[in-house]
Write a structure and sequence with these properties.
The longest helix has 22 residues. 42% of the residues lie in helices and 12% in strands. Helix 13 links the parallel strand 11 and strand 12. It has three domains: 234 residues, 3-Layer(aba) Sandwich (Rossmann fold), CATH 3.40.50.1360; 52 residues, no CATH class; 239 residues, LmbE-like (Rossmann fold, 3-Layer(aba) Sandwich). It binds fructose -6-phosphate.
Length: 640
C-alpha cells in the first residue's frame, strides 16, 4: 500500500501527493531527484537506470537536467535510460516519434552514449514485437531494474500507454490507443486520422517494479483525472489508480492539476477552514447544487450535515447566509454589460458613468468574440457604446487547404469576368495546388498560402462584426507577429506584440476591455494573447491617466465556463439574442461543420457556445434565481 497520509486534510488521498505553486518549481525538484540518483550511483561506481516519459509533462524536467549537465557538470556517461513507449508503426526519424522527442528535449544536449538509450522500436515487423518486448523487460531486469520511473498521465488515466482495461501485472507489449488519447495527440500529427492506432508500451507491471515512481501532472486539464487517480477506487478503467498499491510512488502536481482534490475543491469536507466571503459563496453554491435545493431553501441541518456546521455557528442561522449569497448572485446579473445609465450602480457589476463607454473586445482568433461573448457584444453595440473589436491573430492555421483553392479560383474567375490580367493569381494558384499534393500533415504553409488563409478568416470576421453592428473603422486586425513567428522559431519575445497592443489601447482609451481569460492551456494562443494585453495595460498604467478608469473583463473560450461562484457579471440573453449570436457565429464559414482543430469535442462551435450559456443559465435557475434562456459570464481582473 502507498505510504499513508496521516494529515487530516489529505485523508481522501490514497497516494502521497505533493503540490507545487507551478510546474517550473515542481519540475526543477523532480530533475534534482533524478540528478541525485545519478550522482549516488556514480559515487558507488554503479549505473543509474532511468525510466523516462515523453509528452508535454516532463519537458521542463529535461530542461533542468540539460542545465545541470551544461552548467553544473552532471554527467550521463554511465546512465542507461528506458523510455516508456513509442507509437507503432513509427519511424524514429519522424517528427512525431518519441525518439525525435527525446533527442530534441534531452539526448542531443547531454553526454549519454547512444548505446545506453532504449526506446521501444516502432519499426518492427508484427511477428518480431513479442520477442522484442520480452527482451526489453529482460534488459531492464538484467541492469537491476529501474531506479526511478517518471510518468505523465493521460486524460484516460493511462500511464505509459496502458489504456483503460490494462491489467495490473501487464508487461511491455503492443497496445491499441484509446480514442481520447489519439484526439489529444491529433495536434502533433495534423489530424486524428494521422495518429497511429497502436503503440508499444511498458506495462503497468513493468512500471511497478521501478524502485521509485513519480507521476507528474500540470494544468487544469488534468484535474479531473487526477482526482480519480488519487481519491478514486482502484480500477482497470483508470490504470493510474493501480499506483495506489505501490509503496514508493509520489504524485507531483501543480496547483491547477490538484484543484479538484477534496482538500482544495471542497476543503470544508477535509478540515477546518477560514470562512471568508469567496469560500462561503463557493460552499453555499456547492451545497445548493449537491442537494438540488434552491439557496433560499437551505436549512441549518443541510449546512450541519455537509461539513459546514462551523459556518452556521459563525455566521448563521442558515437564513442569513442564504440571503447574503442569494443577493450576491442576484447582483451579478445585468442586461447592461456596459453599465446602466442614470441608476444607482453601487450594487451593479459595471459603472453607470460614462453612459457611453469606449470598449475594446480582444478576440485571440477571429471568431472568439462571437463564440464566447456574442450576445454581450451585440448588447454593447445595441446599447450605443463605442465598441471596437481587435482580432489579435490571423487564425490562418485553422483554414482547410481546399478553401484556399476555392478562393483563388474565385479570384481568377473574377479577373476573367472583368477582363483583367489574372497572370500572377494563376501562378500562385498553380503553386498552391502543387504544394498541397505533397504537403505533409502539420507542415507549415508557405507565406502566400498563409496570407490567403488569413484573408479568408478576415472576411468572415468583418462579416461577423458588421452583423453585430460595428462600423468598419472599429474593426481591427492586429495580426500579432508572435503567431506566425512561433511556427518557425523559438523566439519567445513578445515586445512588438505588446507595443502594437499599447498603440491600439492608446488610440481607443477604453473604459472596458474584454479579453479571453482561458488559461487551461498555458502555451496556447489564448494565454499568450492575454499576457500581451495584460503587459500592455500594466505598462500604460504607469503613464496614462485614462487607464485608471479602464476595467478589464475576462470571458472564457468555447470549451468551458467560469464556475458560478467566480462569476462577477452574468449577462442574460433572450431566445432572440441567442439566435442573433448564432447567426454571427455562422459568418465564420471556414470554421463551420468540421473545423481543422475541433479539439476533443464533437460539437460545432455554435452548439458548444449555446450549450455552455444555457448550462450557466440552468445553474442560476437551480440555485433559485430567475430562469433565463442563456447567460454569458465574465470575471473582472484585479490589478492591485
Ligand atoms: C508518454 C506517455 C504518456 C504521457 C501522457 C500525458 O511517454 O507514456 O502516458 O505521459 O499521455 O501526456 P502529456 O504529458 O503530453 O499530457
Amino acid at each position: 500500500m502507498a505510504r499513508l497520509n496521516l494529515l487530516e486534510e489529505t485523508r481522501f488521498e490514497k497516494v502521497p501527493v505533493k503540490v507545487y505553486p507551478n510546474q517550473n518549481t515542481a519540475s526543477v525538484d523532480v530533475a534534482h531527484r533524478i540528478a541525485s540518483i545519478i550522482k549516488n550511483k556514480q559515487a558507488k561506481g554503479e549505473t543509474a537506470v532511468l525510466g523516462l516519459a515523453t509528452g508535454a509533462t516532463p519537458v521542463k524536467v529535461y530542461q533542468e537536467l540539460v542545465r545541470l549537465h551544461k552548467e553544473e557538470g552532471l554527467s550521463f556517461r554511465d546512465v542507461v535510460t528506458f523510455n516508456l513507449d513509442e507509437y507503432y508503426p513509427m519511424q524514429p526519424t519522424d517528427d512525431q516519434s518519441y525518439v525525435s522527442f527525446m533527442k530534441k528535449h534531452l539526448f542531443d544536449h547531454i553526454d549519454i552514449p547512444a548505446a545506453n538509450i532504449n526506446i521501444p522500436d516502432g519499426t518492427l515487423a508484427p511477428e518480431e514485437i513479442q520477442g522484442y518486448c520480452e527482451a526489453y523487460e529482460q534488459k531492464i531486469s538484467n541492469l537491476g531494474g529501474l531506479d526511478i520511473q517518471i510518468l505523465g498521465i493521460g486524460r484516460t488515466g493511462h500511464i505509459g500507454f496502458n489504456e483503460p482495461g490494462s491489467a495490473p501485472n501487464s508487461g511491455t507489449r503492443l497496445v491499441t490507443l484509446d480514442d481520447l488519447t489519439r484526439r489529444d495527440a491529433s495536434r502533433d500529427f495534423g489530424g486524428k486520422e494521422n495518429v497511429p492506432t497502436k503503440a508499444i508500451t511498458m506495462g503497468v507491471g513493468t512500471i511497478f517494479k521501478a524502485k521509485e515512481i513519480i507521476l507528474m501532472a500540470w494544468n487544469e486539464k488534468k484535474a479531473e483525472i487526477i482526482k480519480k487517480a488519487v481519491e478514486g477506487e482502484i480500477s482497470p478503467e483508470i490504470p493510474a489508480t493501480y499506483l495506489q498499491l505501490s509503496d514508493h510512488v509520489e504524485f507531483i502536481l501543480d496547483q491547477d492539476a490538484a484543484g479538484m482534490l477534496t482538500r482544495f475543491d471542497t476543503p470544508w469536507l477535509a478540515r477546518d477552514v477560514v470562512w471568508d466571503e469567496s469560500l462561503t459563496k463557493k460552499a453555499v453554491v456547492w451545497l445548493s447544487l449537491k442537494l438540488g435545493k434552491a439557496i433560499l431553501k437551505l436549512t441549518d441541518d443541510d449546512y450541519n450535515n455537509n461539513g459546514m456546521a462551523e459556518l452556521v455557528t459563525e455566521q448563521g442561522p442558515a437564513y442569513s447566509i442564504n440571503i447574503k449569497i442569494f443577493n450576491d448572485l442576484q447582483r451579478t446579473i445585468t442586461g447592461w454589460p456596459g453599465g446602466k445609465p442614470n441608476v444607482d450602480d453601487s450594487n451593479r457589476p459595471e459603472r453607470a458613468e460614462p453612459a457611453r463607454k469606449n470598449v475594446i473586445l480582444f478576440s485571440p482568433h477571429p471568431d472568439d468574440d462571437v463564440i464566447s461573448m456574442g450576445g454581450t457584444f451585440i448588447r454593447l453595440a445595441d446599447q450605443g457604446h463605442n465598441i471596437h473589436v481587435a482580432y489579435q491573430t490571423s487564425g490562418n492555421t485553422a483554414v482547410w487547404d481546399d478553401d484556399v483553392l476555392r478562393y483563388l479560383e474565385f479570384v481568377q474567375d473574377f479577373a476573367i469576368a472583368i477582363d483583367d490580367d489574372k497572370g500572377l493569381t494563376s501562378k500562385i494558384y498553380a503553386e498552391a495546388r502543387e504544394f498541397f499534393k505533397t504537403k505533409k500533415p502539420n507542415q507549415v504553409d508557405p507565406e502566400i498560402i498563409r496570407i490567403v488563409k488569413a484573408l479568408i478568416r478576415k472576411g468572415e470576421a468583418i462579416a461577423g462584426a458588421r452583423f453585430v453592428g460595428l462600423p468598419d473603422e472599429n474593426i481591427h486586425f492586429q495580426n500579432l507577429p508572435f503567431y506566425d513567428r512561433s511556427k518557425f522559431s523559438k523566439d519567445v519575445s513578445f515586445e512588438d506584440d505588446i507595443q502594437q497592443t499599447m498603440e491600439l489601447l492608446r488610440q481607443v482609451k477604453p473604459h472596458q476591455v474584454f479579453a479571453a481569460g482561458d488559461f487551461a492551456d498555458p502555451h496556447g494562443t489564448h494565454k499568450v494573447c492575454f499576457d500581451i494585453i495584460l503587459k500592455a495595460l500594466l505598462r500604460l498604467r504607469e503613464t496614462d491617466e485614462w487607464t485608471r478608469d479602464c476595467w478589464l473583463w475576462l470571458y472564457r473560450g468555447a470549451w468551458h465556463e467560469y464556475p458560478i461562484h467566480e462569476i462577477e457579471m452574468a449577462v442574460p440573453l433572450s431566445p432572440q439574442e441567442v439566435k442573433r449570436k448564432r447567426l454571427a457565429i455562422f459568418k465564420h464559414q471556414s470554421q463551420k461543420d468540421v473545423p481543422v482543430f475541433p479539439g476533443d469535442d464533437p460539437r460545432e462551435f455554435w452548439v458548444r457556445a449555446e450549450d455552455r450559456t444555457s448550462e450557466t443559465a440552468g445553474l442560476y435557475h437551480k440555485l433559485g434565481l430567475a430562469d433565463y434562456e442563456a447567460i454569458e459570464a465574465f470575471v473582472r481582473w484585479k490589478f492591485d
